[in-house]
Design brief:
- This protein is mostly helical.
- 74% of the residues lie in helices and 0% in strands.
- It has one domain.
- The protein contains 14 helices and no strands.
- The chain is globular.
Length: 318
């Protein structure tokens, strides 16, 4: 049975959210003790890039080729998109409660919509605005159990907002890059430049891996493969079927899934507000799927505006 492009994008984005949600608990475990956020991001990026380099060199070396003029573009994607998104998010969690940090990061769809409206001059469908409001409200309710205002700090708030802005930037840049490069190419160079950045900027990046407890090494490998490589491939692939703002709204499923996972495996109870929030996020996704104005003429106009307003990357289909 053929699957429509919007449905394929939805399935890919949902799978990414599921894997990110389940690996989030693993990241919290690994960061207990001496593991810093920058060091965790360095390991994720470096080990992920090495695995892709070995696999692609052996099977599909042509995918590693990019135009030299596109190196700065991928460098920005790697530093702003991956390195700073992950670091600011982990650092915000250390300074704020988890619920508020998640809520601030998932303001990303709002920044994407504002960028599309101001830069591309796109008309935003009312159904998309309603879906965004539903998703953000649902996200706040889902995180209500840990959403408190007792430990607010300016640094934590700024880091949380930056996490959302960086995530929005990566989404928009990825959407443009998929017009010219394969998902594996985009992910490899994003991870590579993220690794280079933290190799230089991370104060403890080069501390030997043997210092990490043996059981945490296995958890770290899980994070690299199923919390980084696999979900990011699905996430990047979704941009071939959906707009960046649609992907951003669907990604708000991550805190919903994380709450359900915690309920099933950690015995954390689900409160009434969290159930209502989950229903709102799911309702927002259904609204996106059911709105023809989003997936027909608006999509065509959006693609045309992106093509005119953004510099073209050379096409590489090998």
């Amino acid at each position: 049975m053929a699957v429509s492009k919007p449905m394929m994008g939805f399935l890919m984005c949902t799978t990414a959210a599921l894997l990110w949600a389940t690996s989030g608990v693993c990241g919290k475990i690994v960061m207990t003790g001496t593991m810093s956020p920058s060091r965790l991001v360095f390991y994720r990026s470096t080990l992920g890039a090495l695995l892709l380099l070995v696999g692609l060199s052996l099977r599909r070396p042509a995918i590693l080729k990019i135009n030299i003029r596109d190196v700065p573009y991928f460098m920005i994607m790697g530093v702003v998109g991956l390195a700073l998104t992950q670091f600011t998010y982990y650092a915000a969690i250390q300074r704020l409660n988890v619920g508020l940090a998640i809520l601030l990061q998932y303001l990303a769809p709002l920044w994407i919509l504002l960028f599309e409206r101001l830069h591309f001059k796109l008309k935003i469908p009312r159904s998309k605005l309603v879906a965004l409001l539903m998703a953000l409200t649902g996200c706040s309710l889902v995180t209500s159990q840990t959403l408190t205002l007792t430990h607010l700090g300016a640094a934590g708030i700024i880091l949380g907002l930056l996490a959302g802005i960086c995530f929005a930037a990566y989404s928009l840049m990825t959407q443009h890059a998929t017009r010219s490069y394969k998902e594996l190419t985009i992910l490899f160079y994003s991870l590579l430049f993220s690794s280079f950045f933290w190799a230089i900027a991370g104060p403890d990046s080069w501390r030997p891996l043997r210092e990490v407890e043996p059981h945490k090494v296995w958890i770290l490998l899980y994070i690299v493969i199923f919390g980084t490589l696999v979900p990011y491939l699905f996430f990047i692939g979704a941009f071939k079927h959906l707009r960046a703002s649609q992907v951003g709204i669907i990604s708000t499923l991550e805190p919903v899934i994380a709450t359900i996972v915690a309920w099933i495996f950690l015995g954390e109870g689900l409160k009434g507000l969290q159930l209502v929030g989950s229903a709102l996020v799911v309702g927002a996704i259904i609204l996106l799927q059911a709105s023809p104005e989003i997936f027909s003429s608006q999509s065509i106009v959006s693609s045309a505006a992106l093509k005119v307003s953004s510099p073209d990357l050379p096409r590489h289909d090998t």
